[in-house]
Amino acid sequence: MSGPFGELRVGRQKKPEYLFLNGEIDPTAVKSIASPINNFQEVTVCVSNAITYLAPTFYGLTAQAMISLRDQTTKPSNGLRLYNVVARYVNGPFRVSAGYGSQGNATGTSAQKVWRAAAGYRE
């Protein structure tokens, strides 16, 4: 669902942090599992049971937020499995991006938390 308010997505999809940040900080611009950045900092690229909001761009600033709900096959079967928030500002050749993600394991006993930021200049 999309409109002037932004876009809302539901279902299995790629994480906002993957979509925004890997393209900014990956020197090879591969933006995939083979990326050197991705190999060290991502657990998964796609997430199931996700709800994502993509904000409209406002003077070069845009943001995305995602939550992923646990399903009935994992214990605990309620609550959040993952949340991911990113923001990006682009002004001509200058760009800066930052994101935070937290992803719990299948049993809900631990979580991987990652902060990332990147800035760049492209001619």
Describe the protein:
The protein has one domain (2-121). The protein has helices at residues 16-25, 36-41, and strands spanning 2-3, 6-14, 46-54, 61-69, 80-91, 94-104, 111-121. A 7-stranded antiparallel β-sheet has the order 1-2-3-4-5-6-7, covered by helices on one side. A hairpin with a 6-residue loop joins strand 6 (94-104) and strand 7 (111-121). It has 123 residues and is mostly beta strands. The radius of gyration is 15 Å and the shape is globular.
The amount of helix comes to 10-25%
What is the mean pLDDT?
A: 79
Count every beta strand, where a strand is a DSSP E run of 2 or more residues. 7
Low-confidence stretches: none
The tally of structural domains comes to 1
Structural class: mainly beta
Oligomer status? single chain
Number of helices: 2
Overall 3D shape: globular
SSE string, helix = H, strand = E?
EEHHEEEEE
In a few lines, what is going on in this structure?
This protein has 123 residues and is mainly beta. Helices cover 13% and strands 51% of the residues.
Features:
mainly beta; seven-stranded antiparallel β-sheet; 2 helices; globular
Present the secondary structure layout:
Layout: E1 2-3, E2 6-14, H1 16-25, H2 36-41, E3 46-54, E4 61-69, E5 80-91, E6 94-104, E7 111-121
